[in-house]
């Protein structure tokens, strides 16, 4: 039997994550049955769970990948830019439903909360690193600790995600993000 290349395995894994993202986003964790995951990915349960231990492992991998993507933008452009990108290109953010599902599971599932704490550190670290660099450069207010600023921005992100996912209008959201950005800047 021929060996499958690492590139092929990585491509298959990415394909599964893309389909699962849509499925979890549309149906939530509980509603994303194995049958629905098969339909969303176009693969059998055996093919899906060859790459992921179980449904929970699949969801955690998906959530971690989405957090990593956000961390890349947050590290270089800031968490407010992540939010601006959501408004400008909503079709690029299929993970909004996943983010809501993460929030729900954090509240209701102690095992998930423990696993997620280990995996979500990358976004927090990226945000804190960016805040520190901006503060050192004299661009951010220095009367508020960075961890408070990071929590503030994360709270705004959660509110924005909830607002977008619930279908409310987006007409004032760009102006609100301007206000948020202004609130963390150094005032001379």
Oligomer type: single chain
- Overall pLDDT, averaged? 87
Q: What is the count of β-strands? A: 0
The first-to-last residue Cα distance is 69 Å
Shape: elongated
Fraction of residues in helices? over 70%
Instruction: Please trace the helix and strand order, writing H or E for each element.
Output: HHHHHHHHHH
Major sheet size, sense and barrel closure: none
* Uncertain residue ranges: none
What fraction of residues sit in β-strands? under 5%
| C-alpha Rg (nearest Å) | 18 Å
Global structural class: mainly alpha
Total helical elements? 10
Domain HTH tetR-type: 10-70
Protein name: Helix-turn-helix domain-containing protein
DNA-binding region: 33-52
Pfam families: TetR_N (PF00440)
């Amino acid at each position: 039997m021929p060996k499958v290349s690492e590139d092929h395995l990585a491509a298959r894994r990415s394909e599964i994550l893309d389909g699962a993202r849509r499925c979890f986003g549309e149906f939530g964790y509980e509603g994303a049955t194995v049958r629905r995951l098969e339909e969303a990915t176009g693969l059998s349960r055996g093919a899906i769970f060859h790459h992921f231990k179980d449904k929970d492992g699949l969801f955690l991998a998906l959530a971690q990948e989405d957090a990593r993507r956000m961390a890349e933008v947050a590290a270089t452009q800031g968490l407010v830019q992540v939010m601006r990108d959501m408004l400008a290109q909503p079709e690029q953010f299929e993970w909004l439903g996943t983010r809501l599902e993460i929030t729900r599971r954090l509240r209701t599932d102690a095992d998930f909360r423990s696993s997620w704490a280990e995996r979500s550190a990358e976004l927090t670290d990226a945000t804190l690193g960016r805040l520190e660099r901006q503060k050192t450069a004299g661009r951010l207010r220095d009367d508020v600790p960075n961890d408070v600023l990071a929590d503030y921005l994360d709270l705004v992100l959660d509110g924005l995600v909830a607002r977008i996912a619930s279908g409310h209008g987006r007409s004032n959201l760009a102006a609100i993000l301007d206000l948020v950005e202004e609130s963390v800047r150094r005032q001379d």
